[in-house]
């Protein structure tokens, strides 16, 4: 029996997905697990696999066409299998386009209208890029596409906007009008999703940030001692972030109120820890989620964090790996940032910001020593808990980081 291949839902906010490239055509043989197409949404791009052995019986959604999640994009079945009902669905999908074409043909077009229309329809461009180009009055025929098979992407249109290469804005006007002589970037795609989520987060919660520093001198020493052994035995490179993640997981188990969410005027406490680890991408930020981190050892947690981060950077992070987080960690230490104010990832109660480790002189008893200090910034929802319990939670993280042997137990 023929199997339906549908457009997956790549995120809670996803309203439309686009087929970027078909790797197979109708009649091609496929095996279960073969990559048959690439699809993308505003936030991520991923490969679609064949659900079973067989052939591609029909393709219902062409490249660069956006459709809602759940829409059937193709069928995989046995050779010569008949698809009577499916073919009618395909005709329904194409009907609006045909109706528009018929309506246009009733009017008498200008002499060059046919050639112009044909030229624009043959330009390979993503729906998002087309929408931006139309809103900014940019002639898509002048844009050089850098996507698959020369497809014009959102980034290509944004580059044209940044360079001020719109045909409707002559250089003389730009030079004489200071208001035009500026760079404007549209808020679209992943940036638009992030902007909306962060704005709603601040509007719909009572956020407060507290800071604390942890002496991680002994922790860094332990890391140097065990990293080679762990890498040889488990093929995992242990980083400072992995130790911090482990400390957070253990602390969340001791402070249940922080491992929670404020939903519909109720505080929902979780027994499991689904840890979100923010990953910066070229065009935005995603938060891969390590499910049931409370059941993992330090080595297992480190391996999962690295796998999720790699999948995110390669655009291969599945939807279920970006949902359900109960607490998030974001690290700006690599950028030299010390303390900062992270914004909650709703509906979570807390998010931990990690800064750059700094060498400082510090007294240990009567001795002045060179120590490594790690800045920590905790943002929490004041509707769920007050400053004292939040400080206790952050203090527990500090305790684990300053007594790193506890992280190995």
UniProtKB/TrEMBL annotation:
Domain Peripheral subunit-binding (PSBD), chain residue ranges per copy: 124-161
Family per similarity comment: Belongs to the 2-oxoacid dehydrogenase family.
GO molecular function: acetyltransferase activity; lipoic acid binding
Record has Acyltransferase as a keyword: yes
Domain Lipoyl-binding: 2-77
The enzyme's E.C. designation: 2.3.1.-
InterPro entries: 2-oxoacid_DH_actylTfrase (IPR001078), 2-oxoacid_DH_E2_comp (IPR050743), Biotin_lipoyl (IPR000089), CAT-like_dom_sf (IPR023213), E3-bd_dom_sf (IPR036625), PSBD (IPR004167), Single_hybrid_motif (IPR011053)
Pfam families the record matches: 2-oxoacid_dh (PF00198), Biotin_lipoyl (PF00364), E3_binding (PF02817)
CDD domains: lipoyl_domain
Name the UniProt record assigns to this protein: Dihydrolipoamide acetyltransferase component of pyruvate dehydrogenase complex
GO cellular component annotations of the record: cytoplasm
PROSITE patterns, sorted: BIOTINYL_LIPOYL (PS50968), PSBD (PS51826)
Superkingdom of source: Bacteria
Cofactor dependence: (R)-lipoate
Keywords: Acyltransferase, Lipoyl, Pyruvate, Transferase
């Amino acid at each position: 029996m023929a199997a339906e291949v549908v457009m997956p839902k790549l995120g809670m906010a996803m309203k439309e997905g686009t087929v970027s490239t078909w790797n197979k055509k109708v009649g091609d043989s496929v095996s279960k697990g073969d990559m048959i197409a690439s699809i993308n949404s505003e936030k991520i791009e991923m490969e679609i696999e064949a659900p079973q052995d067989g052939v591609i019986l029909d393709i219902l959604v062409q490249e660069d066409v956006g459709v809602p999640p759940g829409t059937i994009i193709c069928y995989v079945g046995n050779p010569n299998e008949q698809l009577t009902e499916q073919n009618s669905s395909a005709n329904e999908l194409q009907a609006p386009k045909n109706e528009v074409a018929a309506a246009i043909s009733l009017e008498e077009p200008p002499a060059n209208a046919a050639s112009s229309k044909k030229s624009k329809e043959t330009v390979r461009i993503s729906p998002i890029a087309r929408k931006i180009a139309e809103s900014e009055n940019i002639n898509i025929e002048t844009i050089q596409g850098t996507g698959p098979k020369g497809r014009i992407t959102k980034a290509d249109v944004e580059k044209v906007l940044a360079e001020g290469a719109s045909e409707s804005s002559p250089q003389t006007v730009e030079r004489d009008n200071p208001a035009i002589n500026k760079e404007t970037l549209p808020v679209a795609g992943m940036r638009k999703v992030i902007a909306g989520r962060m704005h709603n987060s601040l509007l719909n919660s009572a956020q407060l940030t507290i800071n604390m520093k942890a002496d991680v001198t002994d922790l860094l020493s332990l890391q140097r001692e065990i990293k080679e052994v762990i890498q040889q035995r488990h093929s995992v490179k242990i980083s400072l972030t992995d130790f911090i993640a482990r400390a957070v997981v253990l602390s969340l188990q001791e402070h249940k109120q922080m491992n929670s969410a404020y939903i519909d005027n109720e505080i929902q406490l979780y027994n499991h820890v689904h840890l979100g680890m923010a990953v910066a991408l070229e065009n935005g930020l995603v938060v891969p989620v390590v499910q049931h981190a409370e059941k993992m050892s330090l080595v297992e947690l480190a391996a999962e964090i690295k796998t999720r981060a790699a999948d995110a950077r390669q655009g291969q992070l599945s939807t279920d790996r970006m949902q359900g987080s109960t607490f998030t960690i974001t690290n700006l230490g690599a950028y030299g940032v010390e303390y900062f104010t992270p914004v909650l990832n709703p509906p979570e109660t807390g998010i931990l910001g990690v800064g750059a480790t700094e060498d400082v002189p510090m007294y240990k008893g009567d001795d002045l020593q060179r120590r490594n200090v790690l800045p920590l910034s905790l943002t929490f929802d004041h509707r769920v808990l007050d400053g004292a319990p939040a400080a206790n939670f952050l203090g527990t993280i500090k305790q684990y980081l300053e007594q790193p042997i506890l992280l190995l137990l």
